Amino acid sequence: MKTQVAIALGANLGDRLKQIQSARDAFKEIIVAGSELLQSSIFKTSPIDCEEGTPDFFNAAIAFIYSGSPSELLILCKEIEEMLGRDLSLARKKRNLSRPIDADILYFGQKVIHTETLHIPHPRLLERRFVLEPLAEIQPNFLLPNSSQTIDEHLQKLVSEEPDLLLVTKEW
Question: Could you give the CA distance from residue 172 to residue 168 in angstroms, rounded to a whole number?
């Protein structure tokens, strides 16, 4: 089955731009043949709920057509994170640590999944400007499962203490 999916990419260690580009390139390898990968601009964002002194993040969103299952996509996200230097054993012990790359499934078509290891749509998707704004750039009219509002409408109604996102680059 072919499904529209979206992934949030974030990095705050090492060459952040290169890490996000490398993650995007890895996801390009799994898209359905003949379909395109949509990519937002890359934005610089302040850390949220992280330890003091945490470097700023670069964040982006990508969307593409995928033919595997949600659990297979989760495994691929973790494999890409590990390939790009993320220590997943640390990530399991404590949330919001600095990382060379983070790849989170934002949505998987109209599926709603809540298991111990997988939550789709992403549980904090509608609470975070650094996720919603890049996603709205590439999928403004997408309706999440069980929602009558588009991604763009959710962004317009977002109440957040987050500072504005700073554009790093539109082309990457």
Answer: 10
Residue 49 confidence (pLDDT) above 80: no
SS3 42: strand
Q: Which amino acid is at 50?
A: C
Domains of the chain: 3-169 (3.30.70.560)
Judged against a pLDDT cut of 70, whether residue 96 lies above it is answered with no
pLDDT per residue over 55-65, tens digit each?
A: 999 999 999 99
8 Å CB contact between 20 and 171 = no
Element (H, E) at 5: strand 3-11
Q: Give Cα 34 to chain centroid, integer Å.
A: 23
